[in-house]
Amino acid sequence: MYWDHVTFPGAVPRSFLPPTLLGLATLPLSTLGVAVGVIRTKLQVQILIRLVLAGIHVHCFNHLVKTIRARYGPSVRNWFLVLSMSQFHIPFYAGRTLPNFMILPGVLLSFSWLLRSFSNSAPPRVTAWRRHLSIFLLTFLATNARLELAAFVIPLALTLVLLRKVNLAAAFSFGALGGFGVVLIAGPIDHELWSRALPHASLPQFTSWWQFAWPELASLQYNLFQGQASNWGIMPAHYYFTNSLPKLLMSALPLAVFGLVWAAADKLGMLGNGNSNGNGGKGFGKAVWEIWCLFGPALAGLLGAMSAVGHKEWRFVVYVVPIFNLIAALTAASLWETRATWLRPLMRLGLVGMIMINLLATGFLTFLSMHNYPGGSVWSILEEAEAAQPHRNVSVHFHSYPLQTGASLFTFLHSTTPTSHWPRQAIPNPLEPTWRYFKSEDPGLKTPGGAYDAGFEGAKRGKWGMEVVWGSRAAVLRRV
């Protein structure tokens, strides 16, 4: 089977453009790895893909870090690094091939360009180009991969217009260019590939040509307007503010809130004269106010729009994290160098304590998450079963549970590799003996009894709590 989505299309269709670009970026490295013998299994190809995505993320993050250094000084840059790296979610997920994290590097790059555009050192033409390019890229990413990002980019573009940083015609033109441009690029690819799979028994609502050509819009219609997102759970309206943001930001959240209150008080003249504390010579209140005026409406737009949707996940609002981290970094840098010498040791002790809490929480969450993907360990359980009791002509059935917890085509180590037109081998040969893999959501196969009735033989209890029925036919079932 050349296209996995033909038999198992997933929860909703997504565009093939981001994974295609990521695959093209990985292809030369994978080819080289197979040629020199470093890459010997498909699982190692998956690791390489995630390393490439993480590398792209690091590059764009570094671009933003350099911008922060130039705009606000080394102290703010250092605090931004410490806060960002001591948090759990973005570093842990940076290499995960979820749509949100495949576009997050582009979001970081757009933020960096926007912040640079407020510097007086660049020529006006360069400044205007950075703002236009940011609008173009954010619209491009939203239209193709995650439409919830539109709730961020539309208020952001309008803010730039109201601040007279971009004229309305330019904002509309570059936004339209990004939106319609990506549909023209990705539409033929997505239509060709999704028309092979849809309509599907699991997705009978997807029947129109436009749904194949623009799967992101079709998914929005399915989840939001048809109410199918509620199948994944309903959360209260305050969920992002009382659950997601505290988890994502950790100690950066109270720092950012305190910084915003402090900057507002400074703006209102409630703090007296002068408030330039170790942040590159730029007054703290002025710096925070500049960031909030630029990004505040966009943050409110995204958080407000997503709060109105019943089903909520932290990854839907992950794009706000760098902005809050920057405000928190400005706050931390000012508190670290506070002019009240009697208060300075206490402030520094408190800041160090907050980072230590971050690190402890991140370590604990990392430990839990390492053991939260039993499906990703099925390949090792099957290898152990094969070594203990070799079989030929094995057929392996995967139910939905292992597929939702880490199992993927890259973990099907014994499956045949499709013929490629690439002149060099980029995917290693399958392990011997060759197996046949099947994926199904048949409820009758969820239990050991149902598996036995379907002809599966033997049983083995996996080390990660995964039950595997083993014999000439194997079934990977569920957590036990």
From TrEMBL:
Catalytic activity: an alpha-D-Man-(1->2)-alpha-D-Man-(1->2)-alpha-D-Man-(1->3)-[alpha-D-Man-(1->2)-alpha-D-Man-(1->3)-alpha-D-Man-(1->6)]-beta-D-Man-(1->4)-beta-D-GlcNAc-(1->4)-alpha-D-GlcNAc-diphospho-di-trans,poly-cis-dolichol + a di-trans,poly-cis-dolichyl beta-D-mannosyl phosphate = an alpha-D-Man-(1->2)-alpha-D-Man-(1->2)-alpha-D-Man-(1->3)-[alpha-D-Man-(1->2)-alpha-D-Man-(1->3)-[alpha-D-Man-(1->6)]-alpha-D-Man-(1->6)]-beta-D-Man-(1->4)-beta-D-GlcNAc-(1->4)-alpha-D-GlcNAc-diphospho-di-trans,poly-cis-dolichol + a di-trans,poly-cis-dolichyl phosphate + H(+)
Pathway(s) it belongs to: Protein modification; protein glycosylation
GO cellular-component term (any): endoplasmic reticulum membrane
Molecular function GO terms recorded: dol-P-Man:Man(7)GlcNAc(2)-PP-Dol alpha-1,6-mannosyltransferase activity
Single GO biological process annotation from the record: protein N-linked glycosylation
Spans traversing the lipid bilayer: 20-40, 47-65, 98-115, 135-162, 168-189, 248-265, 289-309, 316-336, 348-368
Pfam families: Glyco_transf_22
Compartment(s) where it occurs, according to its Swiss-Prot or TrEMBL record: Endoplasmic reticulum membrane
Domain of life: Eukaryota
Membrane association type: Multi-pass membrane protein
Known role: Mannosyltransferase that operates in the biosynthetic pathway of dolichol-linked oligosaccharides, the glycan precursors employed in protein asparagine (N)-glycosylation. The assembly of dolichol-linked oligosaccharides begins on the cytosolic side of the endoplasmic reticulum membrane and finishes in its lumen. The sequential addition of sugars to dolichol pyrophosphate produces dolichol-linked oligosaccharides containing fourteen sugars, including two GlcNAcs, nine mannoses and three glucoses.
Family according to the record: Belongs to the glycosyltransferase 22 family.
Designated name of the protein: Mannosyltransferase
Lineage: Eukaryota, Fungi, Dikarya, Basidiomycota, Agaricomycotina
